[in-house]
Amino acid sequence: MRAIMENKYDFMEVQKPSKTVIQIFLLVFMISSLTMIINYLILENYTIQLFTIILSSIMLFFLILSHILKLTVMINEEGIRYKCRPFHVRTKIILFEDMQDIRIVKLKVPFRYYGFTVNYGLRGSIFLFGGYDGIVIKKLNRKIVVLGTKRNTEAQEIIKKVTRQDA
Question: Using an 8 Å Cβ cutoff, are 94 and 145 in contact?
Fold first, then answer.
């Protein structure tokens, strides 16, 4: 039976998407809204209006989502907890005994994401909310979980300290 983690954490980080991502969504939303208003008042072109309404709705959805998104990473002597709101209802727990390897790495994420990506796949999951440093966890079941961190040196020190206690 697995031990339940306590509420005391050696490391805790809460991340939200970078302001650059939010600014891009806001800029596109504003431009599409202005286009819709101009089309309605001046051109009365209903095909373009429909397109701008759809584009505005999509951008509004992503703008709201960017304010809801939050990644919480917690590390203590038993393992790592993480929760990516709104995708995870409950906090996910990875015990150190269930890990094959854990490292802090500089990720090679394409520039177009501005260090922001949430990706689920057959081989694992990636959660980056700004920046290109990540905690890479290779689990015993060969799945990989990548959790973004902006405090990579502090996380590295805590992971070294905690994994030495287990060894």
Answer: yes
- Determine the pLDDT at residue 4: 44
Looking at the structure, do residues 45 and 122 belong to the same domain, yes or no?
no
Range of the domain at 97: 72-166
Higher pLDDT, 44 or 31: 31
pLDDT value for 44: 67
Provide the 10 A C-beta neighbour count for residue 84: 19
114: closest CA among 26, 21, 27? 21
Domain identity same for 109 and 158: yes
Domain membership of residue 11 (yes or no) is no
Same domain flag for 53 and 114? no
Of 35-39, 66-70, 100-104, 127-131, the least confident: 35-39
